[in-house]
Amino acid sequence: MAAAITREQIVDVAESIARRDGLDAVTVRRVSAELGVTPAAMYWHLEDKQELVSALVDRASARTERPGADYGTWLERLVRFYVSTREEFTAIAGLGRALVTTEPTDATLANCLFAFELLTSAGFGERRALGVFDALSTMSWGHLMMIDVERSNQGQGRGDAIAKYSERMKAVIERTPGYAVFARDFDDDRSRAQLVRGLELIVRAAALEDGIDVPPLTRVDVTN
Questions:
Q1: Which of 112, 126, 149, 186 lies 20 to 30 Å (CA to CA) from residue 33?
Q2: pLDDT tens digits for 14-58?
Q3: Rounded CA separation 73/210 (Å)
């Protein structure tokens, strides 16, 4: 029975399920049922569900774009990398959370090295580059977690509760107009633009302290 399936087939089916129904829907029993094998047959290739999740994280990380020098400036390449991370890890509900909680894989480590080397090539010393990388990644991961929370709330049937909460917030804002700037529903385009702006601000603030010149972020397709 073990020879009837491969690890690649298992991960393929798991990814298909995750893209349709979210990462939480991926179980050994469901994957084995779609493959037409017993759950025991899968354990010849994977220890447990966590290893399967790790494989999905590794795939998404491997697909993340790491632009070459022909793409643009080092800042544009760095921003595009983080935006591509967002694209890959929001394609599956729950995968952003898994990126934060799963042990590093070959692909995730390669991505870390890519960002780190871009920062050192820009003029940051190794220790400083590591600090900037940590700040950028913390922001990126937090951004992904927020998107997953939004999806989870909707997926758990909490849409009505969220709508009621929004109505209460509107009532508070009407009494205190100064709060109006914070009354915003989730919008994917604005969310992506906020990520780009936040990444740029972190880099520019660190570069200013270190006397490093930062090129303008002129490409309009870094968020596409």
A1: 149
A2: 999 999 999 999 999 999 999 999 888 888 888 888 999 999 999
A3: 19
What residue segments make up the domains of the chain, in order of their start?
Answer: 1-46, 66-210
Dihedral sign, CA of 173, 177, 181, 187? positive
H helices of the chain, where? 7-21, 28-35, 39-42, 49-63, 74-90, 95-101, 106-122, 126-155, 159-175, 188-210
The single-letter code of the amino acid at 148 is: D
The letter for the amino acid at 202 is: I
Which residue has tokens 């020098």? 69
Total residue length of the chain: 224
- What is the C-alpha to C-alpha distance for residues 161 and 88, in angstroms, rounded to an integer? 29
Closest CA to 102 of 38, 138, 54: 54
84-88-89 Cα angle (round to 5): 115
Which tokens belong to 195?
């990520």
Give the whole-angstrom CA distance, residue 216 versus residue 219: 9
Q: In angstroms, rounded to a whole number, what is the distance separating the alpha carbons of residues 194 and 217? A: 14
Q: Which fold has domain 66-210?
A: Tetracycline Repressor; domain 2 (1.10.357)
For each successive 10 residues of the chain (224 residues), what is the average pLDDT? 76 95 92 90 85 95 96 96 96 92 94 98 97 96 88 59 63 71 69 93 96 88 60
Instruction: Report the CATH number of the 1-46 domain.
Output: 1.10.10.60
